[in-house]
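REQUEST ID: PR-0412
SUBMITTED BY: lab tech R.K.
PRIORITY: routine
TASK: structure prediction, single protein chain
INPUT:
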Amino acid sequence: MLTDAGTRWCERVTVTFRNTGGSPARSGTVTFATHVIGALGVDWATIESAQPLPAPIAPGTARTRTYTVCVDSWRVPLGMHVDTRKVTATWK
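STATUS: complete
OUTPUT:
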């Protein structure tokens, strides 16, 4: 789920992580691919950022976390906005 974070260069991204394995996920990284979108809908850039996984996640359980994802303000001129389109997670 995506929501406005109050500035055109940030948004709040809510992600649910499910551990379907047989052992706990003890650590990991969440990577966000955030697109900078122009006033006419043109995708100008994709900026990746990473934050820690909300670990530990026990086997067979899920955990939901909301992240504030931002890019540098100068990358998003007036009339443009950001849109996080891809979220990937790696864990150990």
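NOTES: The two ends are 25 Å apart (CA to CA).
REVIEWED BY: pending
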